Amino acid sequence: MPQALSEIPIQFIKSVGPSKAKLLANLGVSSVEDLLYLFPHRYEDRSTFTPIAMLQAGLPQTACGRIVLARRNYYSKNKAVEITVKDTSGIIHCVWFNQPYLINIFKPGQEIVLYGKVDIFKKRLQMTVPDFELIAKEDRSLNMGRIVPVYPLTRGINQRYLRKLMDACLGLYADRLQDIVPQAIRSKQRLNPIAQSIRQIHFPSDDAQKQKGIDRIAFEEFFLFQICVILRRLSIVNKTGVAHQLSPTLIEHYKAALPFALTGAQTKAIHDIAADMAKTRPMLRMVQGDVGCGKTVAAFFGCMAAWKNNKQSALMAPTEILAQQHFFNFQKLFVPGPFEAIKAALLISSTPAKDKKTLYQELERGKIDLVIGTHALLEETIAFKNLSFVVIDEQHKFGVNQRALLSAKGTNPDILIMTATPIPRTLCLTLYGDLDVSVIDEMPPGRGKIKTYRFPLAKAPSVYQKVRELVLQGAQAYIIYPLVDESEKLDLKAAKDQFVHLQKFEFQGLRLGLVHGRMKREETDEIMEKFKKHELDILVATTILEVGIDIPNANVMLIEHAERFGLSQLHQLRGRIGRGAQDAVCVLLGDPVTQEAAMRLDAIAQTTDGFRIAEEDLKIRGPGHYFGRHQHGLNELKMSNPVTQIEILEKAREDAVILTKNDPQLNGMEHRLIKETIKKRYPQYLDLILAG
Ligand code: ADP
Ligand code: MG
């Protein structure tokens, strides 16, 4: 057996010494296999170049020519280095700032490739700070006259070096790449051999071949990911759980006990939950819906059903304030009433030690029917008598492991996950293919509308004035900043300084509070509590405010530097208001400089539909960024995008379903490689599956 490529250190390759090996490690490359799986983040078609005279202003483009002049601009305070580049059609100027050493690199006569946005500056074509590559004669074959890969770089590693190294490694090792996808599936899906695909991804012979290569890798990525997702599901639903007895009239009783009528979407979700709970196999369901749509009310039905079966339930929320909110909401809804006899308790880290102890005992003896709490519920010492229903709020704030920890406290309890992050169907399938989904896409009636306005930052004074008026009429307001502290690099207003400033000037005499992510949890909880009790008029905050807070009287929101926020972030922030019967106002202050930022602000101003915003966001940013970096394995999807490659995703899922059905342990000859690769790429999932 030849050595596996993952076992061959990259330093083994001739042009890689110890220092280059260290630099390559920054790119996540330590073996030959890592290198071959280091994919370009874009390509440049250098088979033909646009003549310089034909370049269009306003667009990023590639140009090529010879340097005719290179000079320092002594008059510029930024130490500019300027060059003039000429081809047979015309000339273009390029400028770089604060990199004086560049003057030693640019030599007249040299061939140079430039990539960047073209502008018209002083009536001349100009690229400001373009990417560039100087091309030596001997380098032409890899770097010119073809579609050229452009890789992510790290200091000390340039494109030409990487291309040369890649070319060498492909030549030596590509044929030894192992196909992770079993032969039968490869022929059924007409996938090219892995070696050919990887070669085409790095040095495509044409666009069609390149795309085939990318699709091939996308299939592989989806396939592995889906296997994980499916096995995760099997690790739960293949067990024997509690088949709750639900009388046919139970839902009607529940409805009758509520002080309001359920929305259609809530009723549908409750029916889904009831049907799942009645089955022996454990429920694994997610309820999705914007904040305030009434997910928790649907979840309480499950708690009630468990209680009717003499079982316990637990609801875990990511912050104390949310846990408290759920707890008080529960009491508000059901006490007094037919479900008053459900003994509910709140358990958070600030619960006094003495009370905790009693609580633990009562939980263990089954004296408490429903416990609502935070991470505090995961304490090892906590045991239940018979936990049969688990609710996890804002699931993406927890790891998959934490969900497992809580459910391990029961005997295969039913699990309900709630999320206010709208997840488009395609992404949902990728991430949560292991969950059944109920969507609540309807808001309870009688809520005010949210009006969203956009202004340039310069309008801040008159906007503050307006906010002041609204507050004096009894409203409460949020003012949101992108940063906690002022930063030297970015000329942005920041929460801390603005808090001091606003209190002293624009909002003098009003009661302001400040919360941000660098404060202790207890401090922010305390301030939030005050705001909730209307002991504060204005809350200055950072995005810490994103999650689930329900303060109906707060119906004014001002977001400064709105262009700095992601689309979903803006949506989540805005979701804090419009919770009461009155109309709410959201003002976005900002001066977008990029087209992307302008698109985000347009989108948010045009709609309040979370799903549309999520789709838009995914298009703009790609899925890896949608949820932040951790937990999901989405970062491992390098060549695949569940939004644009949905057909490939669905095919891969189909095959993953068949494969896991036939060999859930992945012990088959061809499946061991899959298992090993999953171990390497998605270790956290494999642990979970094997543990489960
Ligand atoms: P979510 O968990 O989706 O954020 P909640 O279930 O906490 O929403 O509900 C938000 C608020 O709206 C709560 O005060 C709740 O009592 C109330 N509510 C829920 N459903 C309805 C409804 N159908 N009609 C009126 N008010 C409702
Ligand atoms: Mg909620």
Describe, in plain words, how this protein is organized in 3D.
The chain is an alpha/beta fold and 692 residues long. Helix content is 38%, strand content 18%. Strands 11-12-10-13-14-9-15 form a seven-stranded parallel beta sheet, with helices on both faces. Helix 9 (264-278) runs parallel beside helix 10 (295-308). It is globular, with a radius of gyration of 29 Å. The model has no long low-confidence stretch (mean pLDDT 89). The structure holds adenosine-5'-diphosphate (ADP) and magnesium ion. Residues 291, 295-296, 393, 548 line the site of magnesium ion.
Q: What is the structural class? A: alpha/beta
Q: Return the CATH class of the domain at 450-607.
A: Alpha Beta
According to CATH, what is the topology of the domain at 450-607? Rossmann fold
Strand order of the largest sheet: 11-12-10-13-14-9-15
The proportion of residues forming helix, as a percent range, comes to 25-40%
Short overview:
By secondary structure, the chain is α/β, with parallel strands linked by helices. The chain is about 40% helix and about 20% strand.
